[in-house]
Structures are given as C-alpha cells and as structure tokens.
Design a protein that fits this description.
Length: 240
C-alpha cells in the first residue's frame, strides 16, 4: 500500500471535500451504546475515508476510501436508529474518518436520528466557518450541518494537545452547540473544562476493543496486560 501524501499544516481542512452520492455509506464500526464519545449515553458510528490527513492522526487506518463496509444508506439508517433506541442511547456521534467527506449519506442518517427524537454529534477536521461557507452551494454539507446538534471542528494538531476539554484532541479545535440542545453543557465545558473517558471491551474470544480518549501513558498502563502494545502518536489519543 502506498503512503498517503503529507498535507502542509497550514492547509489542513481547508480544501472543500468532493461531493459524493448519498445512496451508500462506507463505514468501519458502530457501537450502539457508549459514554466515551460525547455527552450522555449515545451510539457512535465511525466512517471509512478521510481526505484531511492530519499528521499524528489517531485513526490513520480510516483514511483510505477502500475497506470497511458499504451499505445502502436508508437501510443502514433504519437499523442504526433501531439499535440506538433499543440501547437507550440519547443520540449518535458521527466520527471516523471524516464525516463531511460523505456528507450526503450521513446527512440522511443524521436526519433519521433527529426524526426519532435523538441528537446528533459530529466530528470534523474542517473548521465550521468553511463548512458554513461551502454549505451555501453544497446541499449535502448543508444537510449534515443542519442535522448536527453538537460539532467538534478543526484539524488535529499534535503539537497543541488539549488536556482540559473532553473529546477534543488539540487546542485549536472547537466545540460548537449548533442547536440549543447542548448549549448549557458546552458553556459549562468552556468555563470548567471536563474529563475524558476510555472504554475497554473484552470479548469471549479474547479480542480487546478500545474506544474513547486517553493520554499515551494512561493507555499503555491500562492495556499492558490486555494484549500487544501499539505505538500511538501524540499525547492524547482518540481510539476507535
């Protein structure tokens, strides 16, 4: 497999994503219930494919636009909403990968969650001011942005780690309440900060799944006896 081109830091997240059909979604992982990927108990969907390519990315295996699973968007949305409701989730978090690289498909999924009374949190390496600008001529971006209650925006900069706010990898990133749903929680985080969470699932066959956020030292200590250690760049890691 060839190496991904290196993107200059100054241009990270500044190139408008290519518009893609929304009939299918390429995705990597889904959790029906987690407390590590946003406020409250929520589902989480990791998409496959990212064109931002932040150096030190926590999930470089999700950059490639191949791999993962490809499913019909409408059928997938129905199943994910059902799974989320059955798990008692408050909403869904969309991350990856880059959600706005598949804005049409994820916009439909986000709207399905909103129509079922659930909230939507979206992570993006693109800054909000550019997403808003692009949305004027891109109905797909406008749809996903309009169906998002809480947005984490901006590229990850590994030399600016953020240890004071939950869910953010670097201090340049923003946490934006796009609707009133999470406005009070965002205001509290901006005033007082917050803590990250890390979840470890050990399956009967011995597989270990990890998701959430931790600094490298804490992660190494936690996983020391659970399986092979992996090198993880940066000082704070989001794990799929």
């Amino acid at each position: 497999m060839g190496r991904h081109p290196v993107t200059p830091l100054a241009t990270l997240g500044t190139h408008e994503p290519v518009a893609r059909p929304g009939t299918d979604l390429r995705w990597s992982r889904f959790l029906a219930a987690t407390i590590a990927e946003g406020p409250g108990l929520r589902s989480a969907l990791w998409v496959q494919g990212c064109s931002v390519h932040c150096p030190g990315c926590f999930n470089p295996q999700l950059w490639a636009e191949i791999g993962g699973r490809v499913e019909n968007t409408a059928r997938l949305a129905d199943r994910l909403v059902t799974d989320a409701l059955n798990a008692g989730a408050r909403g869904i978090t969309l991350l990856g990968g880059e959600p706005f690289d598949q804005a049409a498909a994820l916009g439909s999924i986000a709207q399905a969650f909103r129509a079922s009374g659930l909230t939507v949190m979206t992570f993006s390496g693109y800054p909000l001011h550019l997403l808003t600008q692009w949305a004027k001529n891109r109905p797909d971006i406008a749809q996903l942005l309009g169906a998002t209650d809480l947005l984490i925006d901006g590229p990850y900069l590994r030399d600016q780690p953020d240890a004071g706010r939950p869910w953010l990898g670097s201090t340049n990133q923003g946490i934006r309440a796009l609707t009133p749903v999470y406005a009070a929680e965002v205001a509290q985080i901006e005033r007082e900060g917050g803590l990250d969470r890390l979840e470890v699932r050990i399956h009967p066959d011995g597989r270990v799944d990890v998701n959430g956020w931790a600094n490298d030292a804490a992660l190494d200590e936690l996983l020391h006896d659970l399986g092979p250690r992996q090198d993880r760049p940066g000082t704070k890691a989001r794990l799929p």
